[in-house]
């Protein structure tokens, strides 16, 4: 009933040449010189084996010492926890506050630096020019304020001379306006 419409699968065989054998079955020249590990590798293993063993031993001693210290310190931590926990929290919050304030300060400085650089690019002026302009403005304002202060002082002095002979002060009380002696 079924027709033979199927195609037979084709199998392709590829041979792989291993680098250690040539076509004739002989070992290649790459591996003929080395039958096993070299002398330098053997000496490296002999030198590093004691070093590795010593380091592994020190790691074990450190681990055991840490476990003993933890076993001794745990009851002390439990007894003093009402004091230690708030102290650790306070110190932790203080450190976090210092780090946060430093971060905010650096962020603020970098923001101001960016703003100054962008303003400098927009205006095309340099910082020394801006400082000279600000100095001139401050000097003008100081001169203006000084002149106004002199004028007001002179006005007050003139008024005091005009009113002075007209007002007599006895014991800190005024007797009246226009009373002459």
Automatic annotation (TrEMBL):
<feature type="transmembrane region" description="Helical">
    <location>
        <begin position="76"/>
        <end position="99"/>
    </location>
</feature>
<comment type="function">
    <text>May have a structural role to stabilize the lipid body during desiccation of the seed by preventing coalescence of the oil. Probably interacts with both lipid and phospholipid moieties of lipid bodies. May also provide recognition signals for specific lipase anchorage in lipolysis during seedling growth.</text>
</comment>
<dbReference type="GO" id="GO:0016020">
    <property type="term" value="C:membrane"/>
</dbReference>
<feature type="transmembrane region" description="Helical">
    <location>
        <begin position="42"/>
        <end position="70"/>
    </location>
</feature>
<protein>
    <recommendedName>
        <fullName>Oleosin</fullName>
    </recommendedName>
</protein>
<dbReference type="GO" id="GO:0012511">
    <property type="term" value="C:monolayer-surrounded lipid storage body"/>
</dbReference>
<keyword id="KW-0472">Membrane</keyword>
<dbReference type="InterPro" id="IPR000136">
    <property type="entry name" value="Oleosin"/>
</dbReference>
<keyword id="KW-1133">Transmembrane helix</keyword>
<dbReference type="GO" id="GO:0019915">
    <property type="term" value="P:lipid storage"/>
</dbReference>
<dbReference type="Pfam" id="PF01277">
    <property type="entry name" value="Oleosin"/>
</dbReference>
<comment type="similarity">
    <text>Belongs to the oleosin family.</text>
</comment>
<dbReference type="GO" id="GO:0010344">
    <property type="term" value="P:seed oilbody biogenesis"/>
</dbReference>
<dbReference type="GO" id="GO:0050826">
    <property type="term" value="P:response to freezing"/>
</dbReference>
<keyword id="KW-0812">Transmembrane</keyword>
<keyword id="KW-0551">Lipid droplet</keyword>
